[in-house]
Structures are given as C-alpha cells and as structure tokens.
Design a protein that fits this description.
Blueprint (H helix, E strand, L loop, with lengths): L3 H16 L18 H26 L3 H35 L5
Helix pairs in contact: 2-3
Length: about 110
C-alpha cells in the first residue's frame, strides 16, 4: 500500500537526485538538463574532441588542396554532430518519461 510518507520520501529522493545535475561543458549543447553524471559529461567532451579533430583535419586537408578529403571529413563531422544531438534528445525523452512515473500528488 502506498502511504503518504512513502510518496514524500520518493519526492525527496527525486529532488536530491535532480539537484546534482552536472553543468555541461559542451560547446554544442544548448542546455545542461540532459547531462546528469560525470560519465555523460566525459562522453560528450570526448565526442566534442573528436568533432574538433575532424574539423581541424578538414581545414588542414583544405590547406593542402585536398578538396575531396576536406569535404569527406566535414561531412563526417556534421554526421557526428547530428548523432550527438539525437543522443541528447533520446536521453531527454527518457528523463521525461522517468519524471512522469513519479507520483506528484501527496
């Protein structure tokens, strides 16, 4: 049986968990709502370093007049950015779904 004290305890635990959202160090992210753990921050920073490396390699290949390689690297970079955005949207949807499972009325 669900009692009022159990609901209040669940709500307190949820508030404590949501209080420890880590700030995003992401250049590409517009919000830090999705990133909730150090592992997520590390993954997004790693993605951003890979994206930055592809952009630098694209610029270097353009400098050495390898247009085809520069375009390919730029397209890969855009694909990585798109994958990163999709991953963030999926995580946000999961977080919203979890939030809806918590009973709000006491």
């Amino acid at each position: 049986m669900i009692t009022r004290s159990k609901l209040a305890e669940q709500l307190r635990e949820y508030q404590i968990r949501s209080k420890y959202d880590w700030a995003s160090v992401s250049f590409f992210s517009s919000t830090s709502k999705v990133i909730s753990s150090r592992v997520d921050v590390a993954i997004f920073v790693l993605w951003e370093l890979v994206i930055l490396a592809f952009l630098v390699f694209s610029a270097v290949s353009l400098y050495f007049k390898h247009l085809r390689l520069a375009v390919i690297l730029f397209c890969v970079t855009l694909l990585l950015i798109l994958c990163m955005k999709i991953t963030k949207q999926i995580k946000l949807a999961r977080k919203r779904k979890r939030r809806m499972l918590l009973p709000l009325s006491l």
